[in-house]
Amino acid sequence: MGREGITLAVGTETRLVAPGPVAALWRARELLALLVARDLKARYKRSVLGMLWTLLGPLLQMAVYTLVFSAIVRVRVPAYALYVLSGLLPWGLVSSATLASTWALLGNQHLIRKVAAPQAVYPLSLVGGKALDLVLSLAPLALVAWIEGRPPSPSWLFLPVAVALAVAFTAGLSLAAASLTVFFRDLRHLAEIGFQVWFYLTPVLYPPSFLAALDPRLRAVLAANPAAPLLRCFQAPIHEGRLPAAGEIAAAAAAAALSLGAGLAAFVRAEDRHLHWF
């Protein structure tokens, strides 16, 4: 269910062959775009500010975290507001899209039963919407950079690569979360708690050196944290005005490829069983 086939003629025999998952998603790209538009309209329906919340939300979070962690916790980082925002934006994509995707299949089961399309379009449409939020949020990010005395530099040209890596990483997590929640409904609540813990073990609000100074054992946690190199691909060009180190780019690319490959493979393998668990 949900997979379109292609017809091949072999001699006098006609066979129906299922396309690969990537080819099937490409053929369903128009549906994917419609779902992204639907999600955006539903999210901002009857909102006075509408999509301006895409820009204001990260700025308000940044203001709160900057006040708490610079004045109370006393994290000493130059241009701290810019540092926080450059980490919050990619983290927001990863966390919000993955958590929203836990309900992507269950919330669209009426469409899944009626529309012959790859089920992966439902979680991926949420990733697409959140990715658009991230891209739009680069405008207030540039404003904060100017205010902090670190205006956009040529290193910002690396950001499309950073966004692509973050989207690929998030897509893998979202596909896995959407599929697993069909079989284990409690995963949605566990994921919310897990992301809260993950957030504070990721260098979003403080640099890696700050965490390691609190407890040397956290060095191993940071080294194993796949989100850390992804965030560095944003923090280095935005906050530090330089390209990420080659090792950071390689680690981010490996995390993105592993997440996307594993998430897509697991989703496709379980796709035919989702309907029986709705």
Automatic annotation (TrEMBL):
Its main location: membrane. Pfam families: ABC2_membrane. The keyword Transmembrane helix applies. It is found in: Cell membrane. InterPro entries: ABC2_TM, ABC2_TM_bact-type. The chain crosses the membrane at residues 48-68, 80-106, 127-147, 159-183, 195-214, 249-268. Residues 49-270 form the ABC transmembrane type-2 domain. Keywords: Cell membrane, Membrane, Polysaccharide transport, Sugar transport, Transmembrane, Transmembrane helix, Transport. Coiled coil: none annotated. It is a multi-pass membrane protein. It comes from the Bacteria. The keyword Transport applies. Belongs to the ABC-2 integral membrane protein family. PANTHER family: CAPSULE POLYSACCHARIDE EXPORT INNER-MEMBRANE PROTEIN CTRC, INNER MEMBRANE TRANSPORT PERMEASE. This is Transport permease protein.
